[in-house]
From TrEMBL:
<dbReference type="Pfam" id="PF03466">
    <property type="entry name" value="LysR_substrate"/>
</dbReference>
<dbReference type="InterPro" id="IPR036388">
    <property type="entry name" value="WH-like_DNA-bd_sf"/>
</dbReference>
<dbReference type="InterPro" id="IPR005119">
    <property type="entry name" value="LysR_subst-bd"/>
</dbReference>
<dbReference type="GO" id="GO:0043565">
    <property type="term" value="F:sequence-specific DNA binding"/>
</dbReference>
<dbReference type="GO" id="GO:0010628">
    <property type="term" value="P:positive regulation of gene expression"/>
</dbReference>
<dbReference type="InterPro" id="IPR036390">
    <property type="entry name" value="WH_DNA-bd_sf"/>
</dbReference>
<dbReference type="Pfam" id="PF00126">
    <property type="entry name" value="HTH_1"/>
</dbReference>
<keyword id="KW-0805">Transcription regulation</keyword>
<protein>
    <submittedName>
        <fullName>LysR substrate-binding domain-containing protein</fullName>
    </submittedName>
</protein>
<keyword id="KW-0238">DNA-binding</keyword>
<dbReference type="InterPro" id="IPR000847">
    <property type="entry name" value="LysR_HTH_N"/>
</dbReference>
<dbReference type="InterPro" id="IPR037424">
    <property type="entry name" value="NocR_PBP2"/>
</dbReference>
<dbReference type="GO" id="GO:0003700">
    <property type="term" value="F:DNA-binding transcription factor activity"/>
</dbReference>
<keyword id="KW-0804">Transcription</keyword>
<comment type="similarity">
    <text>Belongs to the LysR transcriptional regulatory family.</text>
</comment>
<feature type="domain" description="HTH lysR-type">
    <location>
        <begin position="1"/>
        <end position="58"/>
    </location>
</feature>
């Protein structure tokens, strides 16, 4: 069997007669009849009963038509993907990011990107920086935003954003009355800390050491959003990415600047290959969303 035979059969099933199928396909009626007959010989059973020039689908014909519809839908998807690859260099795009950006910056970037590319499908993966880096290196992800503490060998990396950290303070906490948090404010204060490998945590620890300050670490976590939730629950104070705090401030979380300041630094990662047009456009949308 070949695709022309399948298309002829599908047209006869759809339009009811070989003459109407031929008109729809732009070929002759004998060509349609021949294609259907050849298909029947190929598959080994009759698709139609023929009585007085009329074609009536057999039970097997109805069953086969169901499978044909599924196959042609898949073929249409392939054609659509091929068109996107021809026009944009990719049929879809795979994006990965930190949890911190998944509920604010990334949605805005995707919304703006889709205004320009409404037919390009996006697959969004949210994971830790190391896992994302490995996926990018394995060419499983087209573009990603991660923290800067990762090993960038085997990937293309460029600076993405540097965001001044804030100190998150529980509702009703005495430090909420302070305009700017300095190291001594956090001495022996219950503290929700970032993971030990986080570069922002290491910067903060260096500042605390210089000032002889030791916060009381009660919880460690890799995610600023988790710190915000724990601080909002009254577990302690914590250093967070202020972008992540969106939504928590409205629920009572207080954010204050910290002096000396520390920053969250992020990278944009790409596989080691030439970028397609839609990857370049999504990178531009991500950069625009951070402004």
């Amino acid at each position: 069997m070949d695709i022309r035979q399948i298309e002829a059969y599908q047209a006869v099933m759809t339009y009811g007669t070989t003459s109407r199928a031929a008109e729809a396909l732009g070929i002759s009626q004998p060509a349609v009849s021949k294609a259907v007959a050849t298909l029947e010989r190929s598959i080994g059973f009759r698709l139609f009963d023929r009585e007085k020039g009329r074609l009536t689908p057999t039970a097997e014909g109805h069953l086969f038509f169901r499978e044909v519809q599924l196959s042609l839908a898949g073929l249409a998807k392939l054609r659509s993907a091929a068109a996107r690859i021809r026009d944009y260099g990719s049929g879809d795009i795979r994006l990965a990011c930190l949890s911190a950006f998944s509920t604010n910056l990334i949605p805005h970037a995707i919304a703006n990107f889709r205004k320009k590319h409404p037919h390009v499908a996006i697959s969004l993966h949210v994971a830790g920086s190391s896992a994302i880096r490995d996926m990018v290196a394995a060419h499983q992800i087209d573009i990603a935003v991660t923290a800067d503490e990762i090993d960038v060998s085997g990937v293309e990396a460029e600076p993405f954003a540097e965001i001044a950290a804030s100190v998150a303070i529980p509702p009703g906490h005495p430090l909420a009355a302070v305009d700017v948090i300095v190291p001594h404010h956090l001495h022996r204060v219950p503290f929700v800390a970032l993971s030990p490998e986080d570069t922002t945590r290491r910067e903060a620890e260096a500042i605390f050491l210089d000032h002889g300050v030791r916060p009381e670490i009660v919880v460690e976590t890799a995610y600023s959003s988790t710190i915000c939730a724990l601080v909002l629950a009254g577990v302690g104070c914590g250093i967070v990415d202020p972008i992540t705090a969106t939504g928590f401030v409205e629920r009572g979380l207080t954010l204050r600047p910290m002096k000396p300041s520390v920053s969250f630094r992020t990278l944009m990662l790409f596989p080691m290959r030439k970028k397609s047009k839609i990857v370049i456009d999504l990178a531009a949308a991500l950069k625009q969303a951070k402004i």
